[in-house]
Amino acid sequence: MDLRYTPEQAAFRAEARAWLEANVPAEPLPSFDTLEGSLAHRRWEAKLHAGGWAMVPWPREYGGRGANLLEWLIFEEEYYRAGAPKRINQNGIFLLGPTLMEFGTPAQKARYLPKMASSEEVWAQGWSEPNAGSDMAAIQALAVRDADHYVLRGQKTWASRGAFADYLFGLFRSDPASERHKGLTFLLVPLRTPGVTVRPIAQLGGETGFAEVFFDDARVPVESRLAGEGEGWKVAMATAGFERGLMLRSPARFQETARRLVELYRENEAGADALLREAVVRCWVEAEAYALDTYRTVSRLLEGGKIGAEASLNKIFWSELDLRMHETALRLLGPRAELLPAAPAAKGVGSWLDGYLFALSGPIYAGTNEIQRNVIAERILGLPKD
Ligand SMILES: Cc1cc2nc3c(=O)[nH]c(=O)nc-3n(C[C@H](O)[C@H](O)[C@H](O)COP(=O)(O)OP(=O)(O)OC[C@H]3O[C@@H](n4cnc5c(N)ncnc54)[C@H](O)[C@@H]3O)c2cc1C
Known about the structure:
By secondary structure, the chain is α+β, with helices and mostly antiparallel strands. About 45% of the residues lie in helices and about 15% in strands. The protein has a four-stranded mixed beta sheet with strand order 1-4-5-8. Strands 2-3-7-6 form a four-stranded antiparallel beta sheet, with no helix packed on it. The longest helix has 29 residues, at about 275-300. Flavin-adenine dinucleotide (FAD) binds near residues 125, 127, 365, 367 and 370.
């Protein structure tokens, strides 16, 4: 294995760095889980797209740069290094985008990908239901075929950024007599369709980007279907592979947190004991290990490999590492950790508390870590189901 970058990759990095340094907003944008913040993030995404950096590994015709996945990793490193805004359309560009590349018709790719790359259309993921979370095969929301339309009935919940999104990609039961994984269909649904109601849900910190979505005889044309009728489970598993195994959480995100953690340690070294020092070092090493492992995954994909059940190992690793890094930061900050950044005695607490609250959800979203452990037990270790 050759871990050095080629001259072309180094040039690509320099170009990305220069553009980001010239264009990343000097002040952080308001949270994308608020209306004001969602609009500011859309404006940022439009700028990113105009500069040609919205989704570097996509073909140019779909709003990308025609780069490969290794260059995407390099871009991500530069993106986090520059402190650029979070991606409001992450469910679109990182999850649905690659799924469309694999399963979409040419017409669907041309229709959806360019507006996804520019975030003119922001996407929400509509899988979970009140009685179908970990047990996703228990999905009950219906898509009943009526000539050249599907008629949607039922409810989805926990749709991240659903309150401000334009579209939802969801799994619906198209064969009412079917059970479990069979008879599910993957549909692309405009949220402004008559019969669709989006209701915001307040999150732990009080913002309302989350949403539950109700369908009361909402009609979508059959062209909104990705892959065949009843093939939704297969498509959704591919999406979940991208989500857990590679794209949703690139290593740069955690390397940047680890770098900030080391900085925080240096600022608070006087009050830190040897155990805390060891915890910081361990977090840093694990973030580097995650990066190396991701380079290995990408090399395998570039040689024609596919993401499989090992995506579950990945998801457990990044979500637990993120939580450990934030817990370590809170220990370093001591009682100050609970102060809001604006409090008079806050003295550089930064966004660690906010980051911690979000890190708590890492072991839950993208499939809980208990479920990932079940997948590893059954599909990687070959253990019996019971
Ligand atoms: C921040 C955040 C963002 C999210 N965004 C989205 C989104 O955009 N779109 C979307 O569709 N969903 C989203 N979700 C929902 C998420 O996918 C579900 O919360 C998750 O799948 C768990 O489902 P549940 O909440 O119904 O919990 P349950 O399935 O009821 O699980 C409750 C507990 O039981 C455990 N458990 C359940 N079954 C088993 C089992 N067989 N073996 C061992 N343990 C088990 C679980 O691990 C968990 O600890 C999001 C969640 C969070 C926290």
